[in-house]
Fold this protein.
Amino acid sequence: MSSRGRHARVFVVVASVAAAVVSASCTDPVLDETVDDQGNETKGIPQGPLHRAGQRCTACHQQNGVASEHPFVLAGTIFAQPKRQVGVEGAEVRLTDADGTKHITKTNCVGNFFVTASEWEPKFPILVEVAKGGVRRSMRSPIGRETDCAGCHVLSVPPADPLSQVGHIYLFATDEIGSPEGAADCPVDPLRPGSP
Ligand code: HEC
Ligand code: HEC
């Protein structure tokens, strides 16, 4: 190999190490893309517990995210039905971590729930079931480390990539108890904007 070739190769290595250092310290391109994918806020829905139902909350609600002041250890949205995305209010999300500690939280009127570190600091993997009014659904496999339910449970019906994605979380098969039309007194329409 000519000495020129060797120098060129050394340069390439140095340049890519520098690029890696820059991206680690300034921005994370994968995270940026995930956040972009969530889209803009919906008009008329304030930034708060009722916004962005079904989206990847912790893409933003984490230390390196745009909502870093309010990080979540786990978050997601429970819908009523397999097809239309109407949030279920008051569904219990029952969580059990690797040490066997348990935490139960409830969904708000668009179906959103979130857990903060002051409430519970789980050790992954985590088991989860959701329940309301005698109806219960359990996820068979444990959640290994993903902090967003929507990291796997996507909003497109059917999921765009069935090999790596599952559909949104729903509690009732259409005619069971519960209110498929969502809570009547919710300040935000519990039918997710853009729902099929
Ligand atoms: C694209 C980024 C983004 C996504 C996705 C997102 N949020 Fe937010 N959220 C924000 C921003 C920005 C604020 C306002 C700044 C703040 O409160 O940290 C906010 C505020 C909030 C607040 C108010 C915090 C407080 O105590 O004032 C809650 C609660 C909340 N979001 C819940 C959620 C839930 C639940 C989800 C998922 C269903 C979600 N957010 C998804 C960016 C996001
Ligand atoms: C790592 C990907 C992944 C994450 C993260 C994830 N899930 Fe799941 N979930 C799946 C898969 C795959 C299935 C279907 C197979 C199974 O039950 O294990 C499933 C199934 C379920 C089911 C049962 C559905 C049915 O048809 O009865 C429920 C309920 C559920 N998940 C809730 C949740 C909740 C709540 C969260 C967030 C706290 C969550 N999941 C996070 C991948 C995930």
